[in-house]
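Narrative summary of target 7.
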Amino acid sequence: MSRRLQLVRTAAQLHSAVADARAIASQREAAKDPTSANRGVVVPEAPEPMPKQAPSQQAWMSRLQPAGPDLRFDPSVPNPARVYAYWLGGKDHYPADRHAGEEVIRQRPQVVAGARANRAFLSRVVRFLAAECGIRQFLDIGTGLPAPENTHEVAQAIAPDCRIVYVDNDPLVLVYARALLTSTRQGSCDHLEADLRDAPTILAGAAKTLDLMQPVAVLLLGVLHFIADTDDPTGIVAALARKLAPGSFVAISHLTSDFAPGPVAAGVAAYNALVPTALSPRSHIQVSALFGELPLVPPGVVPLPGWRTALGEPSPQHVDIYGGVACIPGRSRRSSPAWKGDYRTDSVQCVTRGVQ
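Modeled conformation, tokenized:
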């Protein structure tokens, strides 16, 4: 098949996927407002439920299916976003993704709890930054497939004027994102296809929606462990951070083998044998080093259940992921009602309401 024909088929596939995703979005609106059923909304037939999944998990699952071959799409090859969606309980995956996910589970069953703890960490971080630190701009890099409590949903529930840019290097992930990750009227959601290794492109694209002269929260959740040491993950974080305004934040979550070296190594080996994008777990020292010299928000870099989990909030005991949040030093240029003038950062610590 010629490259031209492949590109034509790719465009047709993406066009069909967008149409399907818009139908799914209409279905969700109809569920919120039953009267929309009388407005000519056409929705796809509901899928058969997955075995052993609670009804509450079904609300965010779609039937979005690619229409044909794609230069970067092959359902016989496991995809990181789809494998992760499988662990979260989603439906947007194929037999190859399920096989890879199950092979990792066989070696380290706690991977499922870890994936879901990572999702809960995202919610806590965004809620903390929006509610307690007054952040109104978020740059979510490594978006993955939509799931409950996406970044814009959490942020805009607190402040409807929040602006979010989702970044991923998978074009099909962005098809889902553009159709399903949509903003409130007061705020904004944009979607950018870019690779994490290309910080200048990410920042230039984000600047079309975000004001980089004002504080931004950069979310690097469950993505840096896909960056090998040879690609300098610490340098990538630094390249992003140095362009952020004072008062900004960087959040990281990252796979580790510190707590169960043997089983995690076996799980990583199983994953890397099947999924083209390899995982690189790192130690507490290595994950902490990703923040460079940025001051950490207490409690620092800790296992995910230990990061500002509310009293009584259920959390798994065994999670092979560290998480942490750091702030960009210097006085913030923004005067936000949420800060009431008492926000400041310096080279030693970040002081916000609740960040002590």
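The first strand starts at residue 137 and ends at 141.
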